[in-house]
Amino acid sequence: MRSRFLAFFLAASALLLGTPAAHAQSLILTPAAVPLSGHNGESVTQVLTLKNESDLPLDFTMEARDVVVRDGARVFIEAGKLPDSIASSAVFTPRSVHIAPRSSGAVTATFTLPPEMRHRAVVAYFRGKTAVQSGNRKSFLSLGTLFTFTVSDKISVAAGTLEAEPPSSTANAQLRTRLVNDGTEPVIPTGMAVIVDAGGRLMGKAQFNAKRLLPGEVATLVADYPGELAAGSYRAVATFDVAGRPLTLTSTLTVQ
User: Fold this and answer.
1) Predicted TM-score of the model (pTM)
2) In CATH, what class is 157-255?
3) What region does 32 belong to: left with phi over 0, alpha with psi -120 to 50, or beta?
4) How do residues 236-250 score in pLDDT, each as one tens digit?
5) Dist. CA 142–CA 200, nearest whole Å
6) What b/e string do you get for 235-251 counting C-beta neighbours within 10 Å, with b at 16 or more?
7) CB–CB of 182/156 below 8 Å?
8) C-alpha dist (Å) from residue 147 to 119, 142, 189, 228, 242
9) Of the candidates 63, 94, 173, 190, which lies 20 to 30 Å from 198 by C-alpha distance?
């Protein structure tokens, strides 16, 4: 399954390359994320394409790292360090790639799921080997595709309270809530909020930012309401779709 590509914009070429900018300077890796469903012991293969929209020839080597969640946040672990490492099974063809300016390079990545696996994600990196000059410093450009694996139906998300921040002279009304993936599988909760007045009249809607949550991961989802609200008391109702399962939260919004 393909996801939307993610463009990683570099600095303007006047800074990045030390030359006047003639074209946009960017790298585009597609797909940026690969959500997969399968079973332990199966192998999966995906073609990764990196487009070099810079004026430099770039060299990369391929590397895989396991992605685990510790204290609610992602940690990237060197291949083979975990007993159930998915990254250690990585096979890249080719292992290294040279990409000329204004051209693309493709790599085929294959992973085999271990018989027992506690984590559900791995990242395939294009690890930069070409030093890029930026002022007095040199850096190496690396981009990665996230692979996530769903191997059961144990999908669950726990939500905190729905917080409603009234509008101010400089900011819109804002709704936010803390979500925790307390299941064993990756999930992308999508949410929409509606605001109704004291008489039950719909005032408007606001969409929450989407966030992919690995098992154990924590994220705060936010929705900005761009409309005008007169002074008064309102009710905010947020509904999230968690892999086809609804999750509804409510809160009071008071505008002075």
Assistant:
1) 0.84
2) mainly beta
3) alpha
4) 999 999 999 999 999
5) 51
6) bbebebebbeeebebeb
7) yes
8) 11, 16, 17, 41, 19
9) 190
